[in-house]
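assembly run, all chains below
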Amino acid sequence: MSKKQKTFRPKARLPRGLHDEKAFEVVAQRQMLEQIRQVYELYGFEPLETSALEYADVLGKFLPDQDRPNEGVFSFQDDDDQWLSLRYDLTAPLARYVAQNYDGLAKPFRRYQVGPVWRNEKPGPGRYRQFIQFDADTVAAPGMSADAELCAMLSDAMEALGIPRGSYEVRVNNRKILDGVFEQIGIALDDPDTNNQRLTALRAIDKLDRLGVNGVRALLGKGRKDESGDFTKGAELSEDQIEKVMSFVSVTAEARLDVCNALDDIVAGNETGKSGVTELREIDALLTAGGYGSDQIRFDPSIVRGLEYYTGPVYEVELTFETTDEGGEVSRFGSVGSGGRYDGLVERFKGVRIPATGCSIGVSRLFAALQALGKVDDQALRGPVVVLVMDQARVSEYQKMVQELRQAGIRSELYLGGSGMKAQMKYADKRQAPIVVIEGEDELANDTVTLKDLALGAKLSGEISDNKEWRESQATQVSVPRSDLVSRAQSMLDDDEVGE
RNA sequence: GCCGUCGUAGCUCAGUCGGUUAGAGCGCUAGAUUGUGGAUCUAGAGGUCCCCUGUUCAAUUCAGGGCGACGGUACCA
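ok done. output:
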């Protein structure tokens, strides 16, 4: 066909599961992160930033190998052949940092960290291959007060973000209780023969909210076939074993102490389980003393977390309100944060058991939820004051105006394009500029400038339908002495803010 | 990974039972408007109909494969 030589043009595209953040999202999310940060700092956590890359073996169980070089993590080989990986969470790097700097740290060591993490897996609704986590951890604090305050802090963070009480819940459980139940039914923690069964059971319970009691029962037993026809192998527990697990998981009560009392019966005679309930009681006492009621923080035995490494309290922050999307589909946001105690994590490096407990907020999902709740300030992105270029010969004068505005702390810019006035106005509109500064022939002759309030104009435009009236409406602009440029612009901006 | 739906303009989507110039709305550009965004009217630009292979005189349309998006499920440190 065509004999034209083809120039290679890469297709402008982004790898799947990643996305660009536009100015509006960046600004709004920054506000949100700042609110969380203030809560974390108020609790005394100090910031730490570790690098995005770590040696693969530092990150843990997924070591790249021939068969599955990138299972779950993004990895590549350095020029000395060592495997590097992008971090997939902020906890593993923390463990590395603590192990590496242990002697110099004030202990307990309490740090927060926010940043992107990467996971090389199939993206889904609300799931990306790069997303932001906001973590706080306390290392080398064995007592329950460290755990209790993280639950309290998550609660505080939700409320700081404007999520009303009753629209979120921190749900707390203790892994030791489940461990006790597992002991009772003969699949104890230290038994390598039942390791897979135990993990499968763990994941099954974790799905209770989504699959319901029957779904979980199926997964604890033979397995489950879902609507799409996919079969999931179960934990192969016996009826009696399933019964025991379900009786534990099904415990519900409003008051935290009622939950504890009910759990006492279930773990009767098992030391591991009993110590778990005791820890819950300690947490309850601490939370109650702090004024946190069960409308904020509840005990919920169905919260187990799918991960193996938790050794004590585990918890999730759940958003409980529902939203209706464009298609009329009702959806719940579910978990936006989680945490727990993992006394074994630093042990990998030091060989010494160092207690640690921490929590993590899934920022991207939480952000989406806040948008649905209308808690995201859509005024967040406001453009600069734009000084129009009416006459190229006078650019230096316009630049001087910009300079004055900037010196007064007013975000402003000279129009830097090459188009005419109309296009400049469009530009200013698109940038969501609050004000446009115009100095044309008329103004120059009178030593004035015209300030046009774009935001006000937009508001008024809805009420005008007649073309003539439209053209003539000049209520949104004022002519002021050149020397008053800064002060009048400032008061216009102030009015806008009040007017919102 | 498995199952399913889908891929046409910048966006949302129509359409072609295989046949000449593939459409709409929104957006974009320009004009109506002697210096003015956002309302209104008019005009214009913009398409490898996802890619490859096959069937056919002829493929955007049919078939196979690939890639991608979406949804469910599994995994999720």
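Chain A has two domains: 23-373, 385-499.

The longest helix of chain A spans residues 23-42.

not gonna interpret more than that til we talk
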